[in-house]
Amino acid sequence: MSRASPSRALPRRLRRIALLCLLVGLVASGAAAAQTVGVEVRIILASNDPRGGIDPGLGPLAPQLRQTLGYTSYQLLNAQVGQAAPDRPWRTTVPGGRSLEIATIPTPPPAITLVVRMHAGATPLVNTTVRLTRGGQPVLVGGPPFQSGVILI
């Protein structure tokens, strides 16, 4: 059996070091991407109620609602702020006996990927993935029917 010559052993060692650096880089970037992110959630009832209008609590979100959706009434039902992480989803209740869960998926910065799920008991109602950029525009997620309209998140 012959041993590798010193000139061939050096590239092999460099490859091992490069592979080790790559693995450490992947773990470090995964750890950075898995950081906890702040979430601000507004639960909105959108309907065509003739007595409606736009709830003043929706503030700067009102023009986006009007331009994007065809409802005439938008009522803010709840607003909450929380923290979400891959191993620690943020949870809250939604009118109509529903639950909302938001978790992050590890994503290279500056993007943030959220998984948004809403359930009524064991029945899934919403299950979507949203990719955002920090400081970007709000995202509307349509939900299930409620009263005379639909829930928006």
Rg estimate, integer Å: 23 Å
For the record, give the distance between the C-alpha atoms at the N and C termini, rounded to a whole number: 68 Å
Stretches where pLDDT is under 50 for at least 5 consecutive residues are 1-33
SSE string: HEHEEEEEEE
Strand content: 35-45%
Can you give the helix content as a percent range? Answer: 10-25%
List the helices and strands and how they pair.
Layout: H1 6-33, E1 37-47, H2 62-68, E2 73-84, E3 90-94, E4 98-105, E5 111-120, E6 123-133, E7 142-146, E8 149-152
Antiparallel strand pairs: 1-2, 1-8, 3-4, 4-5, 5-6, 7-8
Polypeptide structure, described:
The protein is an alpha+beta fold and about 150 residues long. About 25% of the residues lie in helices and about 45% in strands. It contains two helices and eight strands, in the order αβαβββββββ. The chain has helices at about 5-35, 60-70; strands at about 35-45, 75-85, 90-95, 100-105, 110-120, 125-135, 140-145, 150. Strands 2-1-8-7 form a four-stranded antiparallel β-sheet, with no helix packed on it. The longest helix has 28 residues, at about 5-35.
